Amino acid sequence: MKNFAYARAQDADTAVQLITQNQNAKFLSGGTNLVDLMRENIEQPDHLIDVTGLPLAQVEELPGGGVSIGALVRNSHLAANQIIRERYPVLSQAILMGASAQIRNMATTGGNLMQRTRCYYFYDTDARCNKREPGTGCDALEGFNRIHAILGASDDCIATHPSDMCVALAALDATVHVTGTGVERTIPIVEFHRLPEDTPQIDTNLQPDELITSVELPALPFARNSMYRKVRDRASYAFALVSVAAALEVEDGTIKNVRLALGGVAHKPWRATEAEKVLTGAKADEEIFKRAAAEELKAARGYKHNSFKIELAERTIVSVLKTLASEGGAR
Amino acid sequence: MSETNSGGREFADRTVPVILQINGIKHELQLEPRVSLLDALREYVGLTGTKKGCNQGACGACTVLVDNERINSCFALAVQYQDREITTIEGVAHSDQLHALQAAFIECDGFQCGYCTPGQICSAIAMFEEFKQGAPSAVTEHLAETEIEFSEAEIKERMSGNLCRCGAYVGIVEAIREAFDKEAAR
Amino acid sequence: MSARIVKPGAIGQPFSRVDGRLKVTGKATFAAEYKVENVAHGALVFSQIARGKIKNIETSAARNAPGVILVLTHENAPEMKKTPVFGSDSEEMGAASSSILYLNTDEVYFNGQPVAVVVAETLEQAEHAATLVAVEYEEKQAKLILQAEKPDAVLPEHIPGEPSDLKQGDAEGALAEALYKVDNIYTTPPFNHNAIELHATLAEWSEDEKSLTVYDSTQYVIGVQEMLAKKFSLRKENVRVIGSFVGGGFGGKGNAWAHVSLTVAAAKVVKRPVKLVLSREGVHLSVGGRTPTEQRVALAANDVGKLTALIHTGFTQTTEHNNFAEQFTFPARHLYKSENIWLRQEMVHLDIVPNTFMRAPGESPGTFALESAIDELAHEMGIDPIELRARNEPDRDPVKDLPFSMRNIKEAYRVGAEMFGWSKRHAAPRTMRDGRFLIGCGVATAFYPAYQFPAAARVEIHADGTAIAQSAMHEMGMGSATAQAQNLADELGLSFEQVRFEYGDSNFPYAPVAGGSNSTISVGAAVKAACDDAKKKIHGLVGEDDASPLKGTRFDEVEFREGGIYRRDDATKGETFHAILRRFEEDKIEGEGEAAPGAESEKYSMGSYGALFCEVRVDEETGEVRVSRFLGVYDCGKIINPKTASSQWRGGITMGIGMALTEEALFDVRKGRIVNPSLAEYHLPVNLDVPNIEIHFLDIPDPLTPMGAHGVGEIGITGVAAAVANAVFNATGKRIRDLPITLDKLL
């Protein structure tokens, strides 16, 4: 790891100021991804601004029923938060299925949003990778791509976003609050991460001088009936091949509300809007679940090793919706 | 080492003074910011009980407790962990008296080569604290409830961040049960 | 030789590990943890191409980086002589992993070959400076694809001690005419041992450069000692290799890989101790793993289920620079009686990191193919797979035509079937379920030969009534030190608490590599010989001593128990070691001994066996497989320590579960690079993947082996992948012949 200069910011303004004033600077919080990438020589910042001292570690109920999650709330604390467990179980589950207890104790809400892909070729600095070194090509296209994207990929990059938490946030219509030089703004979670297009080196729509301060969950009463299913190569401590976050409200056999998002399938957490359209207002049965899943995956494209993900995603969507429909509002 | 301009007085590069509180003892070190807590313990303090198994956050051998919570010390920059109470395997026993879990690991053969063992033990101690506080896991069936059964599946899931290549998982779970079952039942 | 009567003593008791306290307190010292003054840190630079020549190696940026003391390349490295490669045909065993002269050549033979060592004041400085070394290559066409090189496959002269092509009768002919047959190809991917302790070497030269001390994470201290002595032209006795605690090996630390001699060379040049710990990526790149295999198994049977043909052939990959055939046809040589047999193993030579042995080399992938095929035949014929195995149980070794020294497979299956509740299993696939989970059960046979190698030991009986034995044996978690302490206690008639066993130091008497499950009996026999020597010496003192109640006794008229010597015919007549040594004013009595396998080993077929039972749950929707129950019933002779032996079996089964379901090193044939050199992406089983594995052992002594025992380190992994695959077939109706059984194969 290249050495770097280190500073510890005590408030958001100072942090933003420091990142604007210094070349090649990055914010550091839990370190569970950035330190890893620095050790692999993928990230080589000259300056690190430690933001863990900022007073952003609270989970607060908002008037109107929403919840604000400070950017420095650690993953384990968020998953164990009673409000989240009761009102947004999909979020607790998604976090708990990610990484390990040790990592969840370090990783923060803001940091989780900033995770970078686990593509093998992104990690191997001897390989070609447009995300790591723009213009070099993509070794995953013709290489081992079993873990890669089936939706929204480009010829320049077929990497996936590795987060579980973000998939739940996508289903929950979360918004990301950020602060930059003199400007604060909110970004809907589905617009926070990008598709690769021809600039896969840019993961998110966050500006270089912007700092995530909190994530807001809207009041979503039916999210009490929500869940996360993660399909992976071992029982625990593995990234998703496919994951599904969903919330469902069924009234008199008809789908009143549904939120559906997929993980492990795209460069960003994939909000399944096509499926939601099919589902909303329809009779809640297996047939419509299958149709909705198929509709969402119509645009999917498989590569040499990952075509199975298309069927796997469909099956997992159906399975999750069936479970939520049968459990109704009981949860 | 950084060859760029140091960016003003807020930044410290090259080496910086780092004070670590480890097992109740204060260690005053001079470290580069890039030194991980794991390497600080092993190479600069000389506490080699904490192990390096991957340096990738993927095996849990480097698990230590920080303010009684478990973390992977390979992902922690030492400079970030000043003013925190760090406990390593060397601080788990009280002088000659083994922690109940250490004794149970011996009795239940919760290890073979012993390399992942310090991480397993530190991890399990914090795991039980998390459990007592009602924290859920990925296998917790009723997420909203804080009364969770101390079941085999719960232990296994909660300990899945600690790899054991010798495959001593059965003994590890047994040892955890032997050390904590009584208290869990309370 | 007759069976030794095993007296009640320490052997057979479930003692906790002698090193347990050190391990649970973090005080066990592994190679990288020895405190050596003024130590510098090393880091490796790996090649980025698979085959070619180094055209230019630019080191100035690295040399000028802060803290850097040395950048060692082929341009400035000291000469390191060529030494025998492990498994080569030379007189000595050899410890080198390959014949590549790392840093004494500009040739690149595989992607990941170490091409430079950077030494710096701190670990961080060394690791960073290593990234600053820039290498230019003249690339050559590399051979990287097994399938492509098959036409040039070679038939090795032998696969460890056995012919690589063996025909009895006309197996193909019998297969063609058979009433029942199965004939399929099975593949296993490359595996990496991935011991959690990273390979580490710490080398310290004496000031005069005539002697060398090396702390190394090795399974073979004597081999490393011999290798380093030769490489650096030192007297062997001036090289000391210490590896007291080794954080798992599984074969991956049995050879000395490139970093060992390179660390020693670097220390010589910088005239300071150097410590080098491989990164996890470095382990995957520069330490070989298990070769992938492509195996054909064809079985033919007559109408009553007797085998008329057994064919097991196939390919593994290796390099021009090493010498290891993964002997996957070994199980087929010993497990089943068949009228016609054809076994053949070929190897293709590729430009890859040299392959090596990994837990039960050969038997592990071999049993996957063979035991899957037996299950397929049983299904084809509608015969219970345990019954089919029983019908083909040989009464003599099928290929050696020798009697078995012991063999209780049928009994293992009988006991196992009862414990597991095998009779409740539905033979028809897809007929057991629990909600969305399909349930399946499978069996398979575990097999591993019983090996004994020459070994030596010394023992000291002290005046205080305690004893110490020493041998350059290894303890990587196998429980060897505990088992040998039990052996020592029983040999000398002392209690377990009164003895200690020292190991892992080349200064101790010779011991072989920790491999082939040989340690327990190899070293056990040497300890016995050393104890006999010491006992004779003590008896020699008292037998002619007027002051002793044992005066006039012959050696065979006395016994050693409770810390002393007593007449067999009069238990009251005798005296303690303490009393004897005090009277003769001696601190201690020393004994030395050597042992080697006896002639019996040539006259008998000696192996260990097991009956494995597995239950899986398969998520019908996602194809995810989880092992929900596992039982191993083992026939491995007398068990020295049920507690530590059970851990060995469970550990092997756990690694077998990984082999079956999750593990695979992804080798990108375009560049010859392993692309998942990480414990995040090379999936070892985690705690939740492994059920509460049940173990039972028959504990029937082998009349021909020391202590009646067999080693138990390897057998645990054998058969496991087949048991899982057979259970998956029973659950889903899908036969997976290509490991690992990932969910995409079951959708």
What can you tell me about this protein's structure?
The complex is a heterotrimer of chains A (331), B (186) and C (747). With 331 residues, chain A is of the alpha+beta class. Chain A has helices at 12-21, 34-39, 75-80, 82-87, 89-96, 101-106, 109-113, 120-123, 165-171, 189-192, 273-279, 286-296, 308-327; strands at residues 5-8, 25-28, 47-50, 59-61, 67-70, 175-179, 184-188, 211-217, 226-231, 242-251, 254-263, 270-271. Chain A has a 5-stranded antiparallel sheet. Chain A has a 4-stranded antiparallel sheet with strand order 9-10-11-12, with helices on both faces. In chain A, a hairpin with a 2-residue loop joins strand 10 and strand 11. In chain A, helix 11 (273-279) runs antiparallel to helix 12 (286-296) and helix 12 (286-296) packs antiparallel against helix 13 (308-327). The longest helix of chain A has 20 residues, at 308-327. Chain B has 5 helices and 5 strands. The longest helix of chain B is centred in the last third of the chain and has 17 residues, at 169-185. The radius of gyration of chain B is 18 Å and the shape is globular. Chain B has helices at 37-45, 100-108, 117-132, 152-158, 169-185, and strands at 16-22, 25-31, 63-66, 69-72, 85-87. With 186 residues, chain B is α+β, with helices and mostly antiparallel strands. In chain B, strand 3 (63-66) and strand 4 form a beta hairpin. Chain C has 3 domains: 34-141 and 198-232 and 242-247 and 253-284, Alpha-Beta Complex (Aldehyde Oxidoreductase, domain 3); 165-191 and 290-451 and 602-745, Aldehyde oxidase/xanthine dehydrogenase, molybdopterin binding domain (Aldehyde Oxidoreductase, domain 4, 2-Layer Sandwich); 454-596, Aldehyde Oxidoreductase, domain 4, CATH 3.30.365.10. Chains B and C meet through helix 1, helix 2, helix 3, helix 4 and helix 5 of B and helix 1, helix 3 and helix 17 of C.
